[in-house]
Amino acid sequence: MTQQVPSTEPELAGVRNFRDVGGLPTVDGRRVRQGVLFRSGHLAHATGEDAAFLATLGLHTVFDFRNAADQKLEGPDVELPGVRNVNLPLSDPADGAEFWRMVRDGDLDQLRAILADGKGAERMIASYRMIIKDRTAEHSRVLHALAEDSVPALMHCAAGKDRAGLSIAVTLLALGVERDAIVEDYLKSNAKHRRYKVHRSSSHASAYSPEVMELLSPLFDARAEYLTAAFDTIEETWGGVDPYLEQGLKLSPQTRERLRERLLD
Hints:
The protein is an alpha/beta fold. The protein has one domain: Protein-Tyrosine Phosphatase, Chain A. Helix content is about 50%, strand content about 5%. It has helices at about 50-55, 70-75, 95-105, 110-115, 120-135, 135-150, 165-175, 180-185, 210-220, 225-240, 240-250, 255-265; strands at about 20, 35-40, 60-65, 85, 155. It has a 5-stranded mixed sheet with strand order 1-2-5-3-4, with helices on one face. The protein starts with 18 loop residues before the first strand and ends with a helix. It comes from Streptomyces levis. This is Tyrosine-protein phosphatase. Belongs to the protein-tyrosine phosphatase family. Pfam families: Y_phosphatase3 (PF13350).
């Protein structure tokens, strides 16, 4: 299939937070190749035009990091002909089910109890740390797949911000991308047209009041402190990126070099 790499970022009607991470600089002066690594929110609501555009990318694999609860809420991804879909949940469907029920259904007092006074941000930081420490097998599988044959690839979760954001960040670390560039790309998820639409059960105005939205904002923001916590966890647990990749993700120098050959100019 011939790849047609878009010259500008497309505005997809039913897929939020889509972008090519090509162009990001590595510490040794190379750049991530255009048209080989994409990220987005879920593909469940992709329109026919969205699907037609995605089909022009020549995708080999879509990595879907959503869990069963996410898929029940949003639906399965649209099928893209000839594209392998790998579902690799990065959080347990039962983990925080009561919490997310509260986010969707809770009244103001309930939301204050679980999110006020920094508790929302603390929860996000703890989640990022946990994914780095506990999901090494999943991240190992992704990197080995990319090194073998799974490019071009698209990684997504629900919003394309947290689980996909971490998986993209881990991939970029393995490629040797500059840390500041990884954070800069991650923060692009805050752009208004990219943000995940908050699901609340009630359509009443009070369900989306300014205070409610302020309480919910730590959950739906991309914040540098979250990604920094993930990086800190790598340092604290493994002593640096190289031992994290080699010991944590079982990525041999040879596999890492194949990964760089596939994804870097």
